[in-house]
Amino acid sequence: xxxxxxxxxxxxxxxxxxxxxxxxxxxxxxxxxxxxxxxxxxxxxxxxxxxxxxxxxxxxxxxxxxxxxxxxxxxxxxxxxxxxxxxxxxxxxxxxxxxxxxxxxxxxxxxxxxxxxxxxxxxxxxxxxxxxxxxxxxxxxxxxxxxxxxxxxxxxxxxxxxxxxxxxxxxxxxxxxxxxxxxxxxxxxxxxxxxxxxxxxxxxxxxxxxxxxxxxxxxxxxxxxxxxxxxxxxxxxxxxxxxxxxxxxxxxxxxxxxxxxxxxxxxxxxxxxxxxxxxxxxxxxxxxxxxxxxxxxxxxxxxxxxxxxxxxxxxxxxxxxxxxxxxxxxxxxxxxxxxxxxxxxxxxxxxxxxxxxxxxxxxxxxxxxxxxxxxxxxxxxxxxxxxxxxxxxxxxxxxxxxxxxxxxxxxxxxxxxxxxxxxxxxxxxxxxxxxxxxxxxxxxxxxxxxxxxxxxxxxxxxxxxxxxxxxxxxxxxxxxxxxxxxxxxxxxxxxxxxxxxxxxxxxxxxxxxxxxxxxxxxxxxxxxxxxxxxxxxxxxxxxxxxxxxxxxxxxxxxxxxxxxxxxxxxxxxxxxxxxxxxx
Length: 583
Prior knowledge:
Elements: H1 3-6, H2 9-17, H3 24-44, H4 53-58, H5 81-84, E1 128-130, H6 138-143, E2 150-152, E3 155-157, H7 169-176, E4 189-193, H8 199-204, E5 210-215, H9 223-229, E6 234-236, E7 251-257, H10 265-277, E8 278-287, H11 297-309, E9 313-318, E10 321-325, H12 381-384, H13 396-416, E11 429-432, H14 439-443, E12 450-456, H15 463-468, E13 472-476, E14 489-494, H16 497-501, H17 513-523, E15 524-534, H18 536-548, E16 551-557, E17 567-573
Parallel strand pairs: 4-5, 4-7, 5-6, 7-8, 11-12, 11-14, 12-13, 14-15
Antiparallel strand pairs: 1-3, 2-3, 8-10, 9-10, 15-17, 16-17
């Protein structure tokens, strides 16, 4: 019997039968061990996407995507100073695009700031916007005396001035018009480098000139945000180590008003990039340093020498403003210039401009004289008449005509049958995510809108044709976020949405549908509209994601006369504010 016989009688039976008499301490230990076991099971058991709401939304479920923190109201995934501050300062590399790796960007809905309201409509917005939509007074404080902007009550007011034209953009434009044909239809597309709040481009709109203004995120971090809120074409961009995301020979003039770009530094790399972008016969306008600027005599001399090596003609030097005209014929290089400028090799494509390193040579371009200022049609004729560059596209002339006619019909269907408010004060800033030859933008040119035509970087490089039409746009890859602030577009249009997700060659998926639509939500203004065209299967999935990002969406058939099986998703972004609870 041993130890068992030495136990008290009431415990002998319990030991033999397995019926334990529990003490309070035994119960506490048992509960603790069970809790530890459950915790470990939850931590180490693999999940299959069915748990958290974000995983459900990514997999096509209808779970609501959570809001971002209030501190992320101006989230810029690819221009985030938390990332860029760790990068090299050489040639301003750290101020260029640097996007998070796939899956690293915040997967949340960017909230509007407290006090946000539907923006002031165009054209009133050219002169004033709501203060609370971007309550940042730094520029008004620093630049108010130069006429940039000022704070008055509930508004920011824009008198139209700039550092080099404190008396107003209109007076400055009159001055430039003495030397540059800004009011005759000869010029249509312009690039304003380091644009401030884009008053120069804004006041050129009444001259039927479409100026794309750009500036980086810097100490005046919101200048592009102010420009877009005003309804002026603008883009977040830095001239650093890469080509700008535009085609060669695209802008009729390029303007720099105290942009502080060191054009002749790095063997003239930046001036070479300007030359790549400027249309033959176009105008280069530099106002401010180094033009006749104290203590920058050396830089001013170097700029004149380098422009001369490119055979640019100096039209005038008026105070601190210099204006050159680019030759309307093929480059005069190679020549015996004293700065070592030469042509690039024949394998260089000057239209390649997506994450493409700047070169220290001048690219060889085709059809120079055919698309030069004076040869290309004046505005508005150039909008509808195909340029010589169309012939570089296989069956280009026919595609151009078909595309133009197709979009006239489709836009009519959008307005009459789908209730899209094109032509009203509800829509000013429009983005076309898959532009091709851009009959869509041409079909709405009479509406009070401007269109950012985006040509996907992996597709045929048709953006040059779009610029020849007198329209503007950029190259982009929709697997990455776009370089703009949140809440900057009223309408986002996406044709052939399947092709934005799938690789054009292999057909395999490159981008994530959820990520692209989350980025669309970041860009779209509250109560803005998204129009997505695609295959029925993809549109069904997009409708699920639309619900997850809190859009009100409807799926429609395509135009009856098109005979297409594709579907059209029309969605409105809801106007929500923090705090936001799940629904």
